[in-house]
Write a structure and sequence with these properties.
About 40% of the residues lie in helices and about 10% in strands. It has a 6-stranded mixed beta sheet, with helices on both faces. It is elongated and about 70 Å long. The chain is α/β, with parallel strands linked by helices.
Length: about 200
């Protein structure tokens, strides 16, 4: 520690903030904390009172099997899911919306970034993402062109750049759904906290 102070890596007051792992764990155990982990936590020295799970699923790879996609969309729609299909091409997204309409699925293409999906709606957007995902608790699913048609083979020709706004739109969808899931998780933790008298 003194060596780092001499080198100027730390300010004098910052040395008091450093502590060992055991000290840090002990301090956090005395507080009401919430930890988020992608893997099942190992208890170790942690005082874990409760564990909660938030389910996230990957979507099927349809490999050009359009009837399978239609079947899943109808099932999600019936269950009240909010469904978004993303394509890096505006033209393909519009054509896909028309194809789904021909299958009696009231899909629509939109470039309105403020559009709030209602339960059971199917929206096509211009955007790029590697793979889709499903949040069963929030009844939300995002399907990408890669999920529908499979991964395109790489070609030597120069690819046309994707509009940055399309990528940011996908990021906004991720953020919106993530925040929605976070709010639901916070409500669960708050209810449990009150039950255990962690808060007034």
């Amino acid at each position: 520690m003194s060596h780092r102070l001499e080198k100027g890596y730390l300010l004098p007051g910052q040395a008091k903030l450093m502590c060992s792992t055991a000290e840090l764990v002990a301090k956090l155990n005395r507080r009401g904390c919430v930890a988020v982990s992608l893997m099942e936590p190992q208890k170790g020295e942690w005082n874990i009172r409760d564990e909660f799970g938030v389910t996230v699923k990957s979507v099927n790879s349809y490999n050009n099997q359009f009837p399978l996609l239609v079947k899943d969309l109808k099932s999600w729609k019936k269950a009240g899911y909010r469904i978004v299909l993303a394509s890096p091409s505006r033209t393909r997204a519009q054509h896909l919306a028309e194809d789904l309409q021909n299958e009696e699925i009231p899909a629509f293409y939109s470039e309105n970034e403020e559009r709030v999906l209602k339960p059971g709606e199917v929206m096509l957007i211009h955007g790029a993402a590697r793979r889709g995902f499903e949040y069963p608790m929030q009844k939300f699913v995002l399907i990408t062109e890669t999920d529908i048609f499979g991964k395109e083979k790489k070609k030597n020709r120069k690819k046309s750049p994707i509009d940055r706004s399309a990528k940011f739109w996908i990021l906004r969808i991720y953020r919106s759904v993530t925040m929605s899931c976070t709010r639901a998780t916070v409500l669960v933790f708050t209810a449990v906290s009150r039950k255990l008298r962690w808060i007034a």
